[in-house]
């Protein structure tokens, strides 16, 4: 499909700890293009950390801000764009991603080894969706979300056992 207007080179979805931000940055450096991260955009907009915002306003308010930044960015930014893990669970975000893919956009499902992603997410902290038993929460979310990521993505990149550089190269080759 021909590109009608500015839109990201690629959008990355996947679980917390999969490496969306890390590998998205790596890809953008290899390609010499811009990188944007939805969680960072959200924190700039709300003026506080995501866990603080969750505690103060709750998840639905967070999902609304998340939708707003994604909606704006999908129509105006042309680099690599990493979304937060929960973003595709919002129907309006899925609708936007479908529209982006219909215009020729690439949506990459970054599929890391579950135990490694879970470890990284737990150790990284700052993730209110993992409050309580972080590993059990991660696994329950993974089971819910994996089919949805597969539904919105048009490329699935499995990075099990790869170095970050090799994984980023594979993501570039496959898009
Ligand atoms: C969330 C994932 C986080 C962040 C927020 C909610 C989720 O992003 O958007 O804590 O619901 O999975 P990462 O996937 O970058 O950790």
From TrEMBL:
Range covered out of full length: 8 to 182 of 552
Function as written in the Swiss-Prot or TrEMBL entry: Catalyzes the specific phosphorylation of the 3-hydroxyl group of shikimic acid using ATP as a cosubstrate.
Oligomeric and partner information: Monomer.
Lineage top rank: taxon: Bacteria
Protein name: Multifunctional fusion protein
Family designation: Belongs to the sugar phosphate cyclases superfamily. Dehydroquinate synthase family.
Organism field: Bifidobacterium criceti
Compartments reported by the entry: Cytoplasm
Binding site for Mg(2+): 21
């Amino acid at each position: 499909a021909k590109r009608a207007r500015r839109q990201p080179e690629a959008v990355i979805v996947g679980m917390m700890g999969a490496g969306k931000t890390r590998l998205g940055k790596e890809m953008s450096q290899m390609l010499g293009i811009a990188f944007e991260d939805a969680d960072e955009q959200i924190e700039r907009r709300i003026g506080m950390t995501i866990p603080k915002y969750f505690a103060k306003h709750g998840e639905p308010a967070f999902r609304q801000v998340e939708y707003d930044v994604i909606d704006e960015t999908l129509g105006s930014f042309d680099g690599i764009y990493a979304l937060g893990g929960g973003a595709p669970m919002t129907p309006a975000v899925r609708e936007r991603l479908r529209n982006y893919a219909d215009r020729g956009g690439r949506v990459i499902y970054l599929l890391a080894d579950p135990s490694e992603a879970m470890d990284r997410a737990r150790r990284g902290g700052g993730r209110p969706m993992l409050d309580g038993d972080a590993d059990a929460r991660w696994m329950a979310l993974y089971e819910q979300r994996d089919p949805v990521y597969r539904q919105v993505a048009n490329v699935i990149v499995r990075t099990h056992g790869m170095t970050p550089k090799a994984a980023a190269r594979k993501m570039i080759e496959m898009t």
